[in-house]
Amino acid sequence: MSSSLDIVLFPDDGLRKVCQPIVEMTDRLDNLIEDMFYTMYNAPGIGLAAPQIAVHERLIVVDVSKDGNQPLALMNPEIIQSSGSIIWEEGCLSLPGVYGNVTRPSNILVRGMNRDGKIIELEASELQAICIQHEIDHLNGRLFIDHLSNLKRTRAIKKFNKEQAELAQKKVQ
């Protein structure tokens, strides 16, 4: 049975760590993938990277479908080709309530290990491409706010800190 994992929130130092490669698929990883999908769907979100649940391995899960029927888990994902450009308003489960327009390639070819332990290549475009790139950023210690201008990043962090302080205050009451 899958269980919900705690999502690490900004500014946790673990979100800035570069993750270690995965050598082989194991039962532990298979269970972790199930728990990550469960956590992502319940958040709700469309992507989750291992460092967001305090696991510093190169693993992402993504599902941009409306009905949650296109789950994709990739280990050691790397973008090997990209083209086009798209601006998309991104958010992040580790920065709840914060959004910003990020420019990324609109089409990518990504290589990684699937749940069967096989190396695959996958073409992704639009939202799926954006989501995969966003999650790979997490594996490299980057957040979507790092793609914003200094002014917009500062505003986003102030907004997040204010909202977190308000949430903490409500919990105390």
Summed up, what is this model?
The chain is built from three helices and seven strands. The chain is of the alpha+beta class and 173 residues long. It is globular and about 50 Å long.
The number of E-state strands comes to 7
Low-pLDDT parts are none
Please give the CATH class: Alpha Beta
Strand and helix order: HEEEEEEEHH
The assembly state of the depicted protein chains is single chain
CATH topology: Peptide Deformylase
Beta-strand content bin: 15-25%
CA radius of gyration: 16 Å
Number of helices: 3
Shape: globular
What average pLDDT do the residues reach? 96
Structural class: alpha+beta
Main beta-sheet strand count, sense and barrel state? 5 strands, antiparallel
Secondary-structure arrangement, i.e. CATH architecture = Alpha-Beta Complex
Question: Can you give a write-up of this model?
Answer:
The chain has 173 residues and is α+β, with helices and mostly antiparallel strands. The chain has one domain: Peptide deformylase (Peptide Deformylase), CATH 3.90.45.10. Helices cover 31% and strands 25% of the residues. The strands form 2 sheets. Strands 1-2-3-6-7 form a 5-stranded antiparallel beta sheet. Strands 4-5 form a two-stranded antiparallel sheet. A hairpin with a 5-residue loop joins strand 6 and strand 7 (119-125).
